Amino acid sequence: MNADTGTEFSAYVVFERDEWAALRLSTPLTLSAEELAALQGVLEQVSLEDVVKIYLPLSRLLNLHVRSARTLSGVRDEFLGKPVGRRPYVIGIAGSVAVGKSTFARTLQALLARWPDHPSVALVTTDGFLYPNATLLERGLMHRKGFPESYDRRRMISFLADLKAGRSEVSAPVYSHQGYDIVPGQAQTISSPDILIFEGLNVLQTATLEGGRAPSIIVSDFFDTSLYLDAEEAHIQEWYVERFLKLQRSVFQNPTSYFHHYKDLSVEQAREVALGIWRDINLANLNENILPSRERANVVLRKRADHLIGEVWLRQI
Are 261 and 172 a contacting pair, CB within 8 Å? Predict the structure, then answer.
């Protein structure tokens, strides 16, 4: 355990993999190998060993946070002299494209839902809050898709505000990765969850308004805690290229895929296209917007080249 990873991250206590695993204590393993396999992503594989050593201690920590938040809510109710009611505990998850956020979020959701104190755990990704392609084209933002300005932040904040205000049902737009666009007329309905996991590229970004003004409300204002999934830039680049090549041989072959025009590329050509997209869009977004928000996370989980989480940074101040 190291209390200082350099000036920039001195706010964190750093746990090596085995040190973090010891904090699991008696937290039971509630996922089978078959259930875990169903949560895997296109490229990402999560082993039961990783669940035991990383996810179970994390789920224990988050469970303690949820219980503490409920106790604090009870204090507020007593002070006000009337029950305010239970509000969902919101966990934000940020990180780069291709770092494995989706698989990480699904696995964490499954584990948290197995705690008896909070069986209802919803997962919403920010993809649904992207502007439709037609709007992005109209505004000249298609090449900036995934950057902060490509999201309907007003709608995103309204969704989170309604959730935190205790509305019994809230809805989020639905995004199709195959169609690479918002699905018209479809919505994901969230009904009074105990916990909401809100996952996306820029959820910890502070953002600015036109004229350089700081907004009065940002997305992370609604988070009770936040996680950042991290890795070396070179590793994420390779994972992105590997994922692109795998999708090019599978999903892109479907005529309904937005990227169907890449279906006949050779491996060398596909790799070059993937590297170009990575450099021009995803790497720029990582360096400009995503990585600078890392220091705002309560927990940073640092992945190794083999996709396993090797370090956990726990904010102490």
Answer: no
